[in-house]
Prior knowledge:
single chain; 13 helices; binds flavin-adenine dinucleotide; flavoprotein; FAD/NAD-bd_sf; FAD binding; monooxygenase activity
Amino acid sequence: MAFKVIIVGGGPIGLYMAHAFERANIDYVILEQQDTVLNISGQLLFTWPQTVRLFDQIGLLDDLEKVSLGIHHKKRLFGDNGRVTTTSNFWDAMQDNHGYPFLPLLRSELVKILYIHLKGRESNIRVNSRVTDIKPHATGVHVHLADGTLIQGSIVVGADGVHSRTRKIMDSLAAQHALNPARLANKPMVSTFYGIFGRASNVNLGIEPEVFFESRGGGPNDGGAVVQCLATKDIVQFVTLKPLPGGPTSDRSPRYSDQEMEEYATSLADVAVCPGVKFSDVWANVERKSTRMLNQEEGFLNNWFFDRIVLVGDAVHKSTSVNGLGMTCGLHSGAVLANELHSLISQLVGKEEEKREPTTEELESAFKRYQEDRKSEVKPVWNGGHAMIREVVKKGWVSWFWDRFVLPWCDMETFARGWLVSWLLIRQGQILRFVPFEGRKGRVPWARKVGVVVV
Ligand SMILES: Cc1cc2nc3c(=O)[nH]c(=O)nc-3n(C[C@H](O)[C@H](O)[C@H](O)COP(=O)(O)OP(=O)(O)OC[C@H]3O[C@@H](n4cnc5c(N)ncnc54)[C@H](O)[C@@H]3O)c2cc1C
């Protein structure tokens, strides 16, 4: 059998990996448990310039720009009284620095564009295919589905999100084979914060369009909350987060009832989302069908692979949505994994008579390089998100002083037109090394270019 990747999960990362494999001439199949990959979930995904560049490399930029919401300014404000503490044009500065804009995209639109541009969308995506078990063997993997079907391939890429079944199977296989299972065990994902994300009509609210508002430390006395929103003249997309009342839990997010969502919204009623608009005003105009309440997990795995199974995206590193970097981290991990696999397979496809499949040891070496590479890049971002969510929900005089007097003068995002963020984060963006690409340039040179050694 020719080398074939089984991708578990048809979310943004699974679909992006499929694009990468098509360009690497690597056969693949996506197994998705739902009856379609095109669900209508209303969450808004801030897509950073380095990620927009990755999408440009696979030919999606024009389509994505057409469906993106506009964004120009960022304003932070006190949730208690609506006073704006900082205003910046961070987003525009980033476009100047890198040649690519920030694109706020509805997940449903992004997934649709990834899907319609995929050559193998009809033949290589299997919906209603919930993975229940995986059995690696010397030359490949057997993947079992809930309906009893067996799918065969060479490796499994688990892109099945924060509750990854692939991760659970991988961890239990690793424990069976390890001399010291405790050392290998991955820690579970933990939820400390929960919230609502969704959409409301802006027609009567009049929230200033194309401004990202971040309202900090408002809400309940016992912890505070953060509300982030971005409006067009017609709609406003919002997300809220506050600490779980019972403290951190590794239990899976419950399915919150309408009544629980109502009670949560009531607890934030007086929080100012922007000057002159309270959360209760937004809630009065909410579109229920595109609104969800859930726990937002956090976790960073120690072991990203075992045998012929490797994890990517939220399955392996998961933050809250507060810094808008979860998908970005996952896609760049996906690019590195695709680079490693492409490089391994190309080395083996030499002369026809020498052609052979990679061994498990060769695959594990490639997975290890991927893991080490990405761990060192994602961990600082993950740590930043972990600290940020704890900072922005906080009440009390220290955070008040920080927001009122410190941030307006020394904000990483505005300092020297965002150059710190540009140099430390955005310019380091990954690229598919095997896909010819010139791309756009800004004032800050990209660290990684096709055919160029990393600076
Ligand atoms: C409110 C909110 C706002 C966010 N905002 C941003 C943002 O602004 N910017 C950003 O970069 N990120 C953001 N994120 C994070 C981003 O949504 C995730 O990082 C991203 O969706 C992860 O993609 P994924 O493909 O790894 O997993 P998922 O999107 O979770 O997809 C996993 C897929 O696997 C399927 N699956 C699961 N189990 C199985 C199984 N056993 N068999 C087969 N299929 C299975 C699922 O049905 C699903 O389709 C936000 C998240 C939330 C909740």
